[in-house]
Design a protein that fits this description.
With about 130 residues, this protein is mainly α. It is elongated, with a radius of gyration of 18 Å. It has one domain. The longest helix is centred in the last third of the chain and has 24 residues.
Length: about 130
């Protein structure tokens, strides 16, 4: 699975470690939010903002789609079930899916910011 982070391309074991670490941080943040811990809201919100910025810069990078298509072609070549590749996943469709993903990420950030004060009030009430 290719992983892009602020213009750098990661694959293989490095990408797995980065994605695993992100999963652990998001998992800890999710558990912390269920337990009404203020640090969890700030951690998840910060991560969301960093990755929203990363996605925005990636989609604006003129070489991103080319590198992503090359990585996907390599993935197709390694998987015998996808020997012919995916003729439907064009650059414009990939870019459209990225924009939809960025809109979804922005909506998550907006909801977290909108309900931030209520969450912090509930966290303060739960801790006392």
């Amino acid at each position: 699975m290719p992983f892009f982070f602020f213009g750098h391309f990661y694959s293989g074991l490095t990408a797995k470690y980065i994605l695993g670490l992100m999963g652990l941080v998001y998992g800890a943040g999710g558990v912390g939010m269920f337990k009404l811990k203020p640090w969890a809201l700030h951690t998840v919100l910060g991560f969301q903002l960093v990755f929203l910025l990363n996605g925005t810069l990636s989609i604006l990078n003129p070489r991103f789609l080319t590198v992503m298509q090359q990585a996907m072609q390599q993935s197709y070549a390694e998987n015998p079930a996808l020997a012919g590749g995916n003729p439907f996943l064009t650059s414009s469709l990939l870019q459209t899916f990225m924009i939809i993903g960025l809109c979804f990420g922005a909506a998550i950030v907006a909801v977290m910011l909108f309900y931030r004060s209520r969450f912090l009030e509930a966290a303060a009430a739960a801790s006392s």
